[in-house]
Structure formats: C-alpha cells, structure tokens
Amino acid sequence: MDITLDELDKRILNALQTDASQTNQQLAERIHASPATCLRRVKRLTELGVITRQVALVAPEKVGSGLTAIVEVTLDHQGDEHQLAFEAVVANVAAVLQCYRVSPGPDFVLVVQVADMAAYHALAHQVFAAQKNVRNVKAYFSILRSKFETRIAV
C-alpha cells in the first residue's frame, strides 16, 4: 500500500525521530501546526504503520551490554520454512537486536548486543550450535561505534 506523506507529515516524522518524548503541545509548536492537527496526524501515521513504535534509546555500555557483534549465519537448507524456523528461534533471543535475511552471501546478518565475550559464547552455543540447520557462523566484534543513527530521511 502506497502512503502519501505531505510536508506536515514529514515534519512530524522528522521531529519525532529526533525526540519522541516531547508532548503533543511541544511537537505542535515545533512543527508549526495546531495541537489537534498534530494529534490527528500522529494517530493516522501510527494507524498506517508509518510510526511503528516510540522507544527510549539506551546506551548499552551503561547497562552492562557493552559488546556488539555483527554475525553472519549460513544455513544448510535455505527453503522458506527453514528460514522462518531460524527467524523464530532468534525472535525469542533478547540479545539479538536485529535479524536480516540477506543475499548474496550468508542467509542472515544479525546484530547482537551482549555483556562480554563469555555471554556471546553462551549465546552462540544456544542459538547457533544447537540448531541443526546452521552450517556456518562468522562474527565481527565492534571495537568502536563511530556512528549510530535510528533516523530515516523522510
């Protein structure tokens, strides 16, 4: 379904991506619209699925999850049912923050956030080694996050 966004919708989305904690009144002032219009537009964008959720971004190192791993996973069998089964496994693992089916190359790329290397090892054993259909796992460990952005240009 194509969704047409006008300039007001785009201003709302840009403002919320910068700070979703602002009140409707603050948002309305920031984007130069009435509070009622702003509230109606945000509700519409949410109902259309343009706004999927509003969250707080947490500094992982401040809460004991200082190790980020980017993990490539290749399956033995790549049929849709096998990919869905793997996705179901990782969907229930809190440390797996993101899971992407990719092509070409590995079948999946995961973004994993854990406390330390011991926690990664435990996760790798639980999620990768215990799955019969996982053929290959290649992990890259972040030594510095020089950019992190959640904002999408609209």
From TrEMBL:
**Which Gene3D superfamilies does the entry mention?**
3.30.70.920, Winged helix-like DNA-binding domain superfamily/Winged helix DNA-binding domain
Q: Which Pfam families match?
A: AsnC_trans_reg, HTH_24
GO-annotated molecular function: sequence-specific DNA binding
Give the matching SMART domains.
Answer: HTH_ASNC
What PANTHER family does UniProt report for this protein, alphabetically?
A: LEUCINE-RESPONSIVE REGULATORY PROTEIN (PTHR30154), TRANSCRIPTIONAL REGULATOR AZLB (PTHR30154:SF34)
Q: What is this protein called?
A: Winged helix-turn-helix transcriptional regulator
An annotated GO cellular component of this protein is: cytosol
Alphabetical UniProt keywords: DNA-binding, Transcription, Transcription regulation
Identify the taxonomic lineage of the organism of origin: Bacteria, Pseudomonadati, Pseudomonadota, Betaproteobacteria, Burkholderiales
Under the heading InterPro entries, the entry gives: ArsR-like_HTH, AsnC-type_HTH_dom, Dimeric_a/b-barrel, Tscrpt_reg_AsnC-like, Tscrpt_reg_AsnC/Lrp_C, WH-like_DNA-bd_sf, WH_DNA-bd_sf
GO process terms (BP): regulation of DNA-templated transcription; response to amino acid
Organism equals Glaciimonas soli
Please report the stretch or stretches of sequence annotated as the HTH asnC-type domain.
Answer: 5-66
